[in-house]
Amino acid sequence: MNKIKYLLLLAVGFGASSCAKLSETPQSFIPASQFYRTQADAVAAVTAAYSLLNAGSNTVQTPYNTLFNTGMNFMGDDEGPGPGATNADVRSQAVLGHSSTGLRVLQIWQQHYAAIKKANIAIDTIPSIAFESTLKARLIGEAKFLRALYYFNLVRLYGDVPLVLHDQTSVNLSDLQVGRTPAAAVYTQIEKDLNEAFTVLPVSYGSADIGRATSGAAKSLLSKVYLTEGKWQSAITAADAVIASGTYKLFTNYPDVFLPATKNGVEHIFSAQFKSNSLGQGNNQAPRSVLTGIPGIVASYADQTVFYNVADATKPDGIDHFFSVYKLYPAGDKRKTETFVTRFLSPSTGTYYGKLNDPKILGDSVPFFNKYWDPSIVGNLSESGANVPIIRYAEVLLIAAEAENELNGPTLKAYTAINQVRSRAIPGGVITPGLTQDQFRQAVYLERRLEFVFEYQRWFDLIREKDPAGTGYNHGILEASLLKVGKTNVSKGVFGKFYLFPIPQQEIDNSNGKLTQNPGW
Q1: Contact (Cβ atoms closer than 8 angstroms) between residue 398 and residue 448
Q2: How confident is the model at residue 174 (pLDDT cuts 50, 70, 90)?
Q3: CA-to-CA distance for 451 and 448, rounded, in angstroms?
Q4: Which of 216, 287, 446, 493 could disulfide-pair with 381, CB 3.0 to 4.6 Å?
Q5: Contact, 304 vs 57, CB < 8 A?
Q6: For residue 102, how many C-alpha atoms fall within 13 Å in the half-sphere facing its CB?
């Protein structure tokens, strides 16, 4: 939200002084209803629920500001920790050597529940505040959209999770402990929140509120929820509604999806918002993707592509030791040169800097992720103003194509949807009819992989997508994909273990004894 103001909510302390010994057991507290009393308070409450999408700094990570990378996508087959990623916990998780006490496992859980708490406070308190009814309904709708998004992430990662729908106000720890709710019930609540949000959210906003959740965002996210659940017809209906609305379209120029100058444009349905030089609201993912040692650029090279071996008769030993997602793009695919770069121009010396994988193989350069590069602030990339797309129109088209194929096979409607995405990327590169259902399914999967590299999507796809044999743990693509890149830990322990994160052991031991652990952890 380039215009949404991120507010520091002041903590209110209270106490007493006397000669008597103070009790450390809280006897009461000041409820949220006493803080939020005006229209401005209501706006602030909802704004606070947005903040954990993207707040952060060089020392703090939040889900869409590097945490989903270090704590999730590093585990996949496209991204991994680079030389600048020195955290042992992160490097262990990247090879699936982590445990239920892992730091990132805990942080993702805690930050999502902190955000849900903020959304619940808004939903609980705003109805009793006296102000204009349309704005009131909109703000509650925004909070429900955000709560749905946060729970959608949690249920996909952890499975059954505590479903907390109201601000917990008890001072007794036992009252705050909530058992795990079956994933199906969590999904039902997510659907309910998104449907209710859709009915009250506007199609668009004025400049002061650009970046807030819209009705299109609610319907688009709902289509993705249905797709994840395998509710094909519902996914089609929701995606078709977004497409038919005419509100969104693809950028003609693929780089416009990521350039700060064109953010919040026609393709952007909902994004985590970043802003340069404004109280640390920059996108910290940008410097993590850049080679270190370049004069005039401060970078850490903490994120890099995952390299693996594939047979290649053109190589001296018959093996390409540096294959990666970078080499999966077909010739002429415009996404390749926007998603990756192989060299950087020093603003100080005017010299290009890059890195060879293998000096014996001319031109086989290391590809660096490029989507969050901000050309306006090269010297201080931690202040990148590039947004992170959470859902954009290209994904709605691919959702429509995938769900249509799953329900009815590769119909003309399915081809039309996928080819809109492909024709933007590859001139003349449309898929012609004639594929089997599984061939089309794999084509959609590949299109998603190439379209959404470095957008915090890949792990969610790895645990959702299926191979030609069927569905479920026995037939998912996760194990085969990770074994291909040498992550052998995926085949150890309980089969299907890595389809779910462990429940943080610290939460079980210290906060919520009603929690149980996922299998294998």
Answers
A1: yes
A2: low
A3: 5
A4: 287
A5: no
A6: 25
Half-sphere exposure of 141 (CA within 13 A, CB side): 23
Q: For residue 424, what are its two tokens?
A: 């933007």
228 Cβ contact list (under 8 Å, min separation 6): 152, 156, 464
Q: Is the per-residue pLDDT at 59 higher than 90?
A: no
DSSP track, 193-214? HHHHHHHHS-S---GGGTTS--
Cα separation, 47 vs 42, whole angstroms: 9
Is the pTM higher than 0.85? The answer reads yes
Residue closest to 190 by CA, chosen among 158, 228, 216: 228
Let me know: does 191 contact 222? Beta carbons within 8 Å.
yes
Other Cβ atoms less than 10 A from the Cβ of 294: the count is 22
User: pLDDT per residue over 201-213, tens digit each?
Assistant: 999 999 999 999 9
CB atoms within 10 A of CB 131: 15
Q: What backbone torsions phi and psi does residue 61 show, to the nearest 5 degrees?
A: -115, 140
Output the CA torsion sign for 87, 88, 90, 95. positive
Angle, nearest 10°, between helix axes 393-408 and 437-451? Answer: 170
- Please tell me the distance from the alpha carbon of residue 104 to that of residue 61, in angstroms, as a whole number: 10
Question: Tens of pLDDT along 354-363?
Answer: 988 777 776 6
- Ranges for all domains in the chain classified under CATH 1.25.40.390: 37-243+502-511
Q: How far apart are CA 399 and CA 239, in angstroms?
A: 7
pLDDT digits (tens, 9 = 90+) for 254-298: 999 999 999 999 999 999 999 998 877 899 999 999 999 999 999
Residue 509 DSSP code: I
Q: How far apart are CA 153 and CA 110, in angstroms?
A: 12
Record the tokens describing residue 35, joined without a space. Answer: 């803080």
Determine contact, residues 383/377, Cβ cutoff 8 Å: yes
**Distances in whole angstroms, Cα of residue 54 to Cα of each of 51, 79, 281, 388:** 6, 20, 8, 9
Identity at 358, one-letter amino acid code: D
* 307 secondary structure, DSSP code: P
Q: What does the chain come to in residues? A: 521
